[in-house]
Amino acid sequence: MSPCTLADTDVRKVYRIKGFGDPSSAYASKLRCMGFTDGTTVEHVPGASHDPQIFFVRGSRVALRKSEARQVFVEELV
Amino acid sequence: MSHQVKSIALAGIPNCGKTTLFNTLTGNTQRVGNWPGVTVEKVEGTFRLGDQQVRVADLPGTQNLNPDTEDQKVAERVIRGGEYDVVLNVVDACHLERSLYLTLDLRERSSQVIVLLNMIDIAEKEGLHINVEHLEKKLGLRIIPVSAIDKESVQSAVKALETAIEKLPPHGEHPSQTEVMDTVAKYAHIDELYSEVVDEKVDRRANITGRIDRVVLNRFAAVPIFLLAMFLMFWLAIGLGSAFIDFFDILGGLLFADLPGALLGSIGTPAWLLTLVGAIGAGAQTVATFVPVVFFMFFALAILEDLGYMARVSVVADRFMRLLGLPGTAFIPMITGFGCTVPAVMAARTLTTRRDRFMTIFMAPFMSCGARLPVYALFCAALFKESSALMVFLIYLAGLFMAIVTGLVLKGTLFKGAPSYFVMDLPLYHAPRPTAICRYAWLRLVSFVKKAGTILVAAVCILTMLDSVGLDENGVSFGGTTSETSLLARAGKSMSPVLEPMGIAEDNWPASVALLTGLFAKEAIVGTLNSLYATLDDTAAAEGPDEGAGGLDIGGTIREAFGSIRGGMAGLFASMDLLGLGLVTEDAEVIQEEIGADDRVYAHIAAKFSKVSAFAYLLFVLMYFPCLAVIGAARKEMGGFFAGVMAVYSTLLAWSVSTLFYQIAEGHSALWMVVSVLVLGGTYGGLFLLGKKERARTPELKRIF
Q1: B687, B628, B684, B619: which is closest to B654 by C-alpha?
Q2: Which of B421, B428, B429, B704 to mutate to test the interface with A (most CBs of A within 10 A)?
Q3: Chain A residues with CB inside 8 Å of B204's CB?
Q4: What is the CA angle B116-B141-B98, rounded to 5?
C-alpha cells in the first residue's frame, strides 16, 4: 500500500501512521503527545464533520483540520 | 501520619474529572486565585486527610509536561517546582492510553505521585475491564480506583490515600530508577501496558457518543443544531439572567445606597461624605445588576461543557474562525458578546493560548451588546422612523464587520504570528451534573465580583463625584444632579470640539456628556440624554425636589424586589427576542414606555442631529471605549497594559470611522477625511510597533503569538 495523508483517508477503513511532513514542528510534537505516533492505528469517523475531520485513535475521538491532517502520513491496513 | 503532607496538587489530562473530584473533596471551601504572570486560573481549597486539613490545588488539564500552551505551563511549573507535597494524578479510565502518557511524565519528575483511576465505572459500561493490581505493579505507582461524582467513593479513596501517602518514598528522593523516555518510547511502553492490563469487550467506536456525533457533527445538520444550541444558551443566560436584574438592582440600591444614605443622613453626616457613600453605593449597585447575567452565562456554558457539546461547537465554528487566524473555540465568547460583553470577555479564558484569548477579548466588544440597543432605538424613533429596523440591522452588521476587521488587523500587528492549529479531543457525552455546574458558575461569579467589581466601584465613584460636584460663580457645591454646572457637564462641553468632526456641534453638549456617562455602562447614555435634554427646556426649571426625599420604605422595596422576579419570569418566554429587536419600532409611544424616554428628547434629537450625524453617533456608541465593567474584566484577563490598549484602540477606531462616515456623507471636509485616515493609519502603525516591542521584550511571546 502506498502512503497517503490522513486527510485523504476513507471512512471505516483503518490506517497506520507512518510519519509527519515536518516531524520537528510543534504540531507534530503535539499530535505525537496525543498518541499519533508511528505505527498507531487510526480510523476516519464516518458521517461526521467534513472539515475539521474526526479520527478515532487510541480510544479517543480527535478533531483535526483537513489542512493539518495533510501533514500526517498514513498507509491503509489490509 | 509520619509522612507529612500539607498540600496536594491534582494533575490530569483535560476532562478527566479533576474538578469534579476537587469539588467533592473540598465542598464549599474552595477559593480562586491567579498564578503570578499568567492569566490561567488555578482553584485551591482544603479537605480533611486523617487528622489534618490539607491544601489541594486543581491544576489546569494538560496532556503532558512539555508545555506548548499557557495552561500546560502552569501545571508543568507547579510539578517541577515541587510546591505541593504530593501530586495526585487523576487518570481517565475511559481514555487510559492518553492519560498514562502524563502519568509516565509525572513518574519521571517526581517520586511523590499517586494515581487516582477515575470513571472506572463508566469504563466498565464502555466495555473496558482494567486489571488495576497488574497496572499498579507495572507502573510502580499506587493506584486508587475512584468515581469522582460519587461522594462515598471519594471518601473511600481519601482513606486509601492516607495509607498510600505513608508508603511514599521520603520527600526529595529523586525517581532515579525511572527511565526517562521520549514520546515514541512512552507510547510503545503504554501500548505494552495497555495490552496487558486492559480487556476491551466491545467495539467502542459504535458507542452512544459515536452515534450522537454522527448527527451533531453531520456536515448538513451540524450548523442548524449548533445555532439551536446557541439560541438556547443565549435564552438561558440573557433571558433568565434578565429576569433577576431588577431584583438585584432594587435590592442592591436599598442595601448599598439607600440604607447607608438614610443612616448617615439621620446622624447629620456632611454632604460631601454622603455623596461619596452614595457614589460607592451606586458602584456596588451597578456590579449587583451584572450578577444574574454573569452567573447564568457561566451556568449555561457549564451545562454545554459538562454535557460534552462545547468541544463539538468548536469543531463546527472552526470552519470560519480559521479565516481570522483563530481556532473554533474562540467563537463562544464572540457570540456571548451579543448579550453582554463582560461574560464574553470572561468566557475567553476557555481558549488555550494567550494570543487566541487576547484577540478574542479585543474583538468581543464590537459585537453589539444589549445595553446599546436602547440608544439605537431612541435615535431610530426620533429620526429614522420606518427605516428603523434597517438602521439597527446595519449597526449590528457594522459591529460584526469591525470585529472581523479587528481580528485581521491584530493578526498582522499586535498579535502577529502563525495562527494556532486546531486539535480538539472530543469527550464522551454524559448527563450534566447540577451540583458541579452550580459550583462552576458560582466560582466564576465570585471571581468576577472580586476583580471587575473593585475597579467598577472605584470608577463609578469618581464619575459620580464629578457628576455631583457643581462649579459656578458661587463656588463649589456638592450634591447637584447632572446639570450644566457639574464638572461632568463641563467635561462634556470640553469634548465637543473633538466630537464636532463627526457631526456633534458644540451646542449639542448633552450628547457629549452622554458618551462620558456611557463609560460607566452603555445603559447610562439614554438616561443622560433624557435628563440633559430636559434641562434645556424652560419647563425643567420648575421641577420639584427628588422623589426619594420622602423617606425609606424598606419593606416596600424588598417586596418590590421580589415582585420584580415574578414579573421577570413572566416575561421569560417573551424574551425569545434575545437581541431585543422588538424594541425597534417607529412607534414612539412603545419606545417611550420601554426605555423611559421623555417626549422632549425626540424633539431635541431631531433638532440637533441630522440622519447622517445620528448614524455617525450610533457608530461611535457601538465602537468606543467598552464600559468600565468590560475594561475591569479585560484587565483581569489580560492585565492593565492590554486592557488599556484595547480601550484606546476601540476609541480611536470609533472616532475615525464615525468621522470618516460623517465627512463623506455630509460634512465634505477633505481635511477631516485626511485626519481620520491618518488616525486609522496611526492606530495600525501603533499596534504594529507595540506588537514588535512586546515580542522583543518577552521572547516567550514570539512563540505564543
Answers
A1: B619
A2: B421
A3: 59
A4: 60
Cβ <8 Å between B423 and A31 = yes
Which candidate in B94, B128, B223, B426 is best for mutational testing of the A interface (most A CBs within 10 A)?
B426
Q: To probe the interface with A, which of B130, B424, B704 has the most A CB atoms within 10 Å?
A: B424
Give the SS3 label for residue B276. Answer: helix
Output DSSP code: residue B486.
B
* pLDDT given at position B39: 32
Class of residue B422 by CB neighbours under 10 A (exposed 0-12, middle 13-18, buried 19+)? buried
For residue range B541-554, list pLDDT tens digits in order: 444 434 444 567 88
For strands B423-426 and A4-5, give the pairing.
Answer: unpaired
Identity of the residue in B101, B210, B315 whose CB atom sits nearest the CB atom of A52: B315
Q: Chain A within 8 Å of B670 (Cβ-Cβ)?
A: no
- Which residues on A lie below 8 Å from B95 (Cβ)? 58-60
Determine, for residues A63 and B210 on separate chains, whether the beta-carbon distance falls below 8 Å: no
CB-based burial of residue B170 (10 Å sphere; 0-12 exposed, 13-18 middle, 19+ buried)? Answer: exposed
pLDDT value of residue B428: 83
Residue of A61, A68, A71, A72 to mutate, testing the B interface (most B Cβ within 10 Å of its Cβ): A61
- Please judge whether A65 and B184 are an interchain contact, meaning their C-beta atoms are less than 8 angstroms apart: no
**Is B98 in contact with A34 (Cβ distance < 8 A)?**
yes
- Taking CA–CA distances from B317, the nearest residue in chain A reads A52
State pLDDT tens for residues B93-145: 988 988 999 999 888 888 889 999 998 888 888 888 999 999 999 999 999 99
Instruction: Please confirm whether the linkage preceding B36 is cis (ω < 30° from 0).
Output: no
What backbone phi and psi angles, to 5 degrees, belong to B145?
-70, 145
Question: Please, what is the Cα angle at B598 between B595 and B601, to 5 degrees?
Answer: 105
Specify the long-range contacts of residues B650-654, CB closer than 8 Å, at least 24 apart. Answer: B650/B365, B650/B366, B650/B623, B650/B624, B650/B625, B650/B626, B651/B623, B651/B624, B651/B625, B652/B679, B652/B680, B652/B682, B652/B683, B653/B402, B653/B406, B653/B623, B653/B680, B653/B683, B654/B619, B654/B620, B654/B622, B654/B623, B654/B624, B654/B625
Q: What is the DSSP letter of A45?
A: P
pLDDT digits (tens, 9 = 90+) for B266-280: 888 888 788 778 878
Using DSSP, state whether B341 is helix, strand or coil: helix
In this predicted model, what pLDDT tens digit does every residue of B290-332 receive, in sequence order?
788 778 877 887 788 778 887 888 888 888 888 888 888 788 7
Helix (H) or strand (E) holding B393: helix B388-412
A1 min Cα distance to partner chain B (Å)? 23
Distance CA B705, CA B687 (A): 14
- Listed in sequence order, the residues at least 6 apart from B243 whose beta carbon sits closer than 8 Å to its beta carbon are B292, B565, B568, B569, B571, B572, B575
What does the buried/exposed string (b/e) look like for B235-270 if buried means 16 or more CB atoms within 10 Å of the residue's CB?
bbbbbbbbbbbbbbbbbbbbbbbbebbeebeeeeee
Lowest mean pLDDT among A41-50, B553-562, B584-593: B584-593
**Considering only CA atoms, which of B56, B63, B172 is closest in space to residue B111?**
B172
Could you say which residues from 314 to 353 on chain B have a Cβ atom under 8 Å away from some Cβ of chain A?
A: 314-316, 318-319, 322, 328
CA-nearest of A1, A3, A2, A74 to A40 is: A74
- Does A50 contact B219 at a Cβ distance shorter than 8 Å? yes
- Which pTM value belongs to this model? 0.70
CB contact under 8 A, A35 and B96: no
Q: Among B184, B315, B425, whose Cβ lies nearest the Cβ of A37?
A: B184
